[in-house]
Specification:
This protein is mainly alpha-helical. It has 3 helices and no strands. It folds into 2 domains: 39 residues, no CATH class; 43 residues, no CATH class.
Amino acid sequence: MPVPFEALLPLGIVTLMFGVTGTLLHATKSHYRHEGKPPRYNLDNWDTEMMERDRRLMGSPHRQTSEPLASKEFSTNSVWYLTTKKILWQ
């Protein structure tokens, strides 16, 4: 039985919409949310600690640096400093 040509136009529109939404979802997840890097899965404690260090060092958990010395701002940007200050004020 032949396919009527009137059904091809809605099929093309539906296929196009699925393609557009899939492309936008991929762009949102990988490019904008993770700064162009693929998302990270199955993170253990080491990965989360390194992401926190990168966030404090570079301002984002997805950027990394190859500099051997940290900037001057990193010396006062410590998690321990914030937790001890929080404990002292409670």
